[in-house]
Specification:
The chain is an alpha/beta fold. It contains 13 helices and 17 strands. Strands 1, 2, 3, 4, 5 and 6 form a six-stranded parallel beta sheet that branches. A six-stranded antiparallel beta sheet has the order 10-9-12-7-8-11. Strands 15-14-13-16-17 form a five-stranded parallel beta sheet, sandwiched between helices.
Amino acid sequence: MIALKWIYATGVLLSYGLLCAFFIQRHLQREFSRKAQVAGFVSGGESLPVCVVAYASQTGQAEELAFQTARFLHDGGESVRLVSLGELTSEKLQQCRRLLCIASTYGEGDAPDSAAPFVSKVMQSRPLNLTGLEFAVLALGDSSYKHFCGFGRAVFHRLQSCGARPLFDLVEVDSRANDRSSKGIETWRQGLMRVLEIEKIQWRDTQVFSPWLIRARKHLNPHSSGREVHHIELVPADGEVLPDWQAGDLVQLEVPGVPGALRDYSIASIPQDGAVHLLVRLAVREDGSAGLASGWLTQRAILNDRVQLRIRTHPAFRMAENTARPLLLIGNGTGLAGLRAHLRARFNERVLNQDIPLSSTWLIFGERHAQFDSYYREEIDDWIKQDLLCRADLVFSRDQPQRRYVQHVLAECASDVREWVEQGAAIYVCGSLKGMAAEVDAQLKQTLGEDAVRQLSLNGRYRRDVY
């Protein structure tokens, strides 16, 4: 009898592993197919075409612009390959004839996580001889930070110092403006047309905006000492079919009444929920006025109001190969949105496949007051009762005299964190860049070691969606 049970359990685990492998392979094939729309693109290989388009992306914006650039060049008759900047080694750079780099700056002048190999192997390596290389850099940044476009500028100057010849001056785009008709993007396109002698070709967006309706809105933290937070649900207008997306993806919306002004939000739901869910905190400007997008979403809009919206893929925060791994989800504030989508996706799989064991999931989430700021608490409690969430550490910074945050929980549970990582866990962090994400990163490095954290990032087991 015991042997039969053991055989049955082994069969279930094997079936689960094969199922996960199938989904992972299907995901990778879809990603390859999407990128392979650019003729001549391959994701690896030794030989390089005339033109390489490389991206360093944290939220997916640089990758999207790189894809648009590659397709633009292909439409103009160029041989092109699209790659992540992290894939380029010194040897490959020395083989390149022409490099077009779209580089985001993360935080205070830092490189995106995916570009870490390029930083260590190219930016910080011995001087290179790149005299045979022509290049251009499109730098994305946020002017609210001190080192605006810092990483893109560093890439430009590094390539130039190694003897590479700029095709044209560094082009900078301010994501704070988030303009749908950015002058920087037009400067980039015009520069490519001029130096590559491409005839006038249409620049095509990869994802199209469409009208959506606000179906529901709920104020989640009345009487909180923090700014108000709302749960918002949106559905396609006119009964259109709900588009597909994955947990970890974003929406980008155009602020009504402010043509061209765009804002990104983490999606807090999965398609099976029947709507895009957002968790939006009211932003307040220095003059005390409400933020353009958050003010409209939380205060001015009424039910059934329309807004132009599109889904933005965010590969860096998707589950991908981590589908069957234990998960350590860490976040604060409205960062719970991105984590909730992953939780709902994982538990939806449990509902559909009740015979398949669910991998362990641990949530660490922080806010101000348990009484007012416990977003989705009933949902979380229900998941705990069903053993769908095996552990939840909810920390509220202002519920005790001494402030306590998620990084303090990580420090207190250091041995558990090490054990989870040793057992194959992936770590996802979502929330504020200033403060939480930096402190969590520092604590993880203290607990696991800097080399271990770097390797987790390279292997896709440490992913961040922070802002």
